[in-house]
Amino acid sequence: MSGTKMGMVRMSMRPKGLPAVPEETVRVARAAFPAGSLPIRLRDRLEAVFADEPFTDAFGVRGAPGLSPAVLSLVTVLQFTEDLTDRQAVAMAVRAIDWKYAIGAELTDPGFDFSVLAKFRARLVEHGMERLVFDRLLEHCRAEGLVAPGGKQRSDSTHVISAVRDLNRLELAGESVRAALEVLAAAAPEWLAGAVDVAGLAHRYGPRVDGWKLPSAKTKRDRLAVVFGQDALMLCRAVREPGAPPWLAELPAVELLRQVLVQTYYIETGARGREVIRKREADSEGVPPGHTRLASPYDADARWAAKGEELFWLGYKVHLTETCHTPLEAEAEAEAEAEAEAEAEAEAGNGNGKRVAAPPNLITDVHTTKATVPDVKATAGIQQRLDERGLRPGEHYLDSGYPSVDLVAAAGKDGTAMVTPLLADNSPQAKAAAGFDKSAFRVDWKARQVTCPTGRTSAGWYPVAQHGRPAIVVQFASADCRACPSRTQCTSSRRVSRMLTLRPKELHEIQGAARTEQKTQTWRDKYKLRAGVEGTINQALDMTGIRRARYRGLAKVQCREV
What we know:
It is a single chain. The protein is an alpha+beta fold. Helix content is 43%, strand content 14%. It has 22 helices and 15 strands. The protein starts with 10 loop residues before the first strand and ends with a helix.
């Protein structure tokens, strides 16, 4: 194992799977851990999950043989389980007896270089194999009867803080220039020396741009912001000059610099015909929306996001989905398993009356997104992946951020009941709990008319599209509304008549039924099952540090979270 190098340009794989555990390693590991340990149990019970063949597309058939992907994936799982760095994980593979047992290494094996793990992860990301081991583990659990379609599952999300430092707009502008200069200096040093004033830029961008070391006076900071913008514009134009290598403009750091320049600065022609660059202001020139706004030149996917009034972070969001059981269901399943095992042991003549524990809650999906992606955008993807794995739940428990009536209807057609609170009617009447909200109106879908609480019928029925979704706008006659004695309970406008926005009939009825049901105590008691997923998130936080990214970029963060 120690003689293999993964850092070569060409690397091949000879599918073998996990090597057999040497006898001496077995003897010492069993003596040192008579009750077992996580790595030992992982090897004994899940050996079939870790194989080389699924990784074939990521490795060639020529070149020096690389380390077994099965071994590397097992080390990676143990590394993330214990929240270790690459160096620490490799050190454990050398000095921890139970780790040596897990990967089938001799006690004298010196291990491998820590950089191998980073290169292995890069291959997984490059070939879209971030979920491979996770999917194989779920297949194994399904074959063992630990997970199955049609049961109950619950999902929730939590924030993930990026691996880059927080930057304000001034720091971002200067650090983006600095990052681009460092890349250009390494990629084309001769061209850079002839294209720009290297000495002047080195003085300004040698140390990292740190807000604590920048001028405190507002006028000086504003002037420095203009200098950063001028330098960024100069570099962006220089790489596109006819004499510049054409590939320079395609470097990621240069492209990020261009984007930061656009989102931070506004270029115009002054009164004297000169080009003027100034910092953008949200009220005048406007700034990009949060989901497209870059926050760091070193992580193009990290975004600023907020949740409530207290949580504000730069990074990502991870969604966890797990199986769950009510106490009665868990007890019933445990008793059924106990009876089945007792019958099997009775037939074998060695029954011992052992009680089987309740089935465990197992994570069935992990999905990482940019921090600005709302939970509702993740719902369909979660259910689709569960369906692809043959694990579509019969009931899916979620908080109010995940559903929409469209998603509830679509999931119901596919056999999944979403147990989740739909957002309440947000009309002024509903919020004030006074007057006539939407539920007070009677809809005649065949006649395409709506009757108000006082008996007046609508004058207009207009099918429209709102935010890409079908809807119906209903309007009452102004003459009816002006003369209505209940006008103040219906609308606060003195000139405009009452208007309603309805969803198509099927969605309207589903929405109304759901809002009515979720007010009942029976539904509230049932919904309490969702809260357990928060304990799973806390467990993942305590064991794996899931809320802090180790790597940069969405793909690499997703690889680690899975």
